[in-house]
What we know:
The structure is a single chain. By secondary structure, the protein is mostly helical. The protein has helices at residues 4-18, 21-41, 47-70, 74-88, 97-109, 115-126, 132-143. The protein folds into 2 domains: 4-88, Orthogonal Bundle (Hypothetical Protein Yqey, Chain: A, domain1); 97-146. Helix content is 76%, strand content 0%. It is globular, with a radius of gyration of 18 Å.
Amino acid sequence: MASLHEQLRAELTAARKAQQKPALLLLGTILADIENAHIAAKRDLTEADVVDVLRKGIKRRRESQDAYEKGGRAELAAQERDEAAMLTRFLPPEASEDDVRAAVKAAIAAGAANVGVVMGKVMPQFKGRIDGGVINRVAREELGPTA
């Protein structure tokens, strides 16, 4: 199976051949972000690193979409929404909240008594597959009002 980085390069080539300028620009930008992360890390990037770059790109586009909507620029907001959707296709399937809840309960049963400790034990299991905010919310729910 091709790596995520290879899939993005293949999509860039396909967009170039089809002369799809928006896709070409988006994929070129993301691949540049990946290359910058590679340079900053001073090592080869793992799949998780590439997923992190993709997630940051999606987050940036969603923030821009919100700003454009608040500014009354519907056409630019739609463009940002489409770009975020295009990038989302490349992410691995998200973990379910039930899986997260089971991992949080296991961490609590193993002695984790506060949100920070629970997050430290659970986050590595779901890196790149679910937003940390979901894990945090589930941890607070499972720990109860003392969290």
